[in-house]
């Protein structure tokens, strides 16, 4: 029998906390926030991974990082009592839409996280109530570089590199850079629109035989946007200095 995740807590935090929506956004709070303590002694019903390589598929593959790509774990200083710390998991806006659009475009969805199974699997269950995620890869599926940092090597997954992409805020940890769709780290803001921006990929990917060409197209737009943001920030700083 499936063990249900406990119901979400009501907000214990003072109004005005930068990570929390205001009182007019109660629905967003209930949907996008959960106390990490709710995952204690909750075990995922996901079947054990068969290990790498993944089972064969005829579908294209979307690999998704977890921390700071789909979620953000935050400590709420309002609740710090010098004995325990309260942490919350915040769901990035647009997660449900991304999963649905990828599925509708015939992508299998694989979570590829450097987190351990005990930590990550219950969170993935919470993120994916419609069970659109096909497979889950955890820390033990990562390689280690000479400094012991987890590396996500897509060549070990059994997927053709021209038919897979990965969305990861730490693109440096994926050796196959041409497969990485670049994204800003999620900081917990309710106005974050990065996942919505990346839906553009699914509008154009069918035009390309090699998905890496579609990735390049999307990343060029991202880099242009980043350059514009840097220019605007520099301009504002110069104005403020005058």
Automatic annotation (TrEMBL):
Key word Iron present = no
Q: Does the keyword Phosphoprotein apply?
A: no
Any one Gene Ontology BP term: protein transport
Q: Where does it mainly reside?
A: mitochondrion
Enumerate the spans annotated as FCP1 homology domain.
55-205
Q: Where in the cell is it found?
A: Mitochondrion inner membrane
Q: Which InterPro entries match?
A: FCP1_dom, HAD-like_sf, HAD_sf, TIM50
Look up the domain of life of the source.
Eukaryota
Which Pfam families does the record match to this protein? NIF
Membrane topology is: Single-pass membrane protein
Q: Which UniProt keywords apply?
A: Mitochondrion, Protein transport, Transit peptide, Translocation, Transport
Q: Which GO terms describe its cellular component?
A: TIM23 mitochondrial import inner membrane translocase complex
Subunit text: Component of the TIM23 complex.
Homology family: Belongs to the TIM50 family.
Please describe what this protein does: Essential component of the TIM23 complex, a complex that mediates the translocation of transit peptide-containing proteins across the mitochondrial inner membrane.
The protein in question is named: Mitochondrial import inner membrane translocase subunit TIM50
Q: Which organism is it from?
A: Carex littledalei
């Amino acid at each position: 029998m499936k063990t249900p995740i406990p119901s979400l807590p009501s907000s214990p935090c003072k109004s005005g906390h930068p990570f929390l929506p205001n009182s007019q956004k109660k629905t967003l709070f209930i949907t996008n926030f959960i106390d990490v303590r709710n995952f204690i002694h909750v075990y995922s019903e996901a079947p054990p991974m068969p290990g790498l390589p993944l089972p064969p598929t005829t579908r294209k593959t979307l690999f998704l990082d977890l921390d700071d790509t789909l979620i953000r774990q935050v400590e709420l200083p309002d609740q710090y009592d010098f004995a325990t710390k309260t942490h919350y998991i915040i769901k990035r806006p647009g997660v449900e839409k991304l999963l649905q659009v990828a599925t509708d475009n015939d992508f299998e969805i694989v979570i590829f996280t450097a987190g351990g199974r005990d930590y990550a699997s219950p969170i993935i269950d919470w993120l994916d109530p419609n069970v659109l995620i096909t497979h889950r890869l955890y820390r033990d599926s990562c390689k280690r570089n000479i400094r012991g940092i987890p590396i996500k090597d897509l060549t070990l997954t059994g997927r053709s590199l021209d038919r897979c992409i990965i969305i990861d805020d730490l693109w440096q940890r994926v050796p196959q850079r041409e497969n990485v769709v670049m994204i800003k780290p999620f900081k917990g803001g309710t106005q974050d629109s990065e996942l919505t921006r990346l839906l553009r990929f699914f509008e154009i990917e069918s035009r390309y035989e090699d998905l890496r060409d579609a990735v390049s197209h999307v990343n060029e737009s991202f880099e242009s946007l980043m350059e514009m943001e840097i220019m605007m920030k520099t301009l504002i700083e110069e104005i403020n200095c005058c």
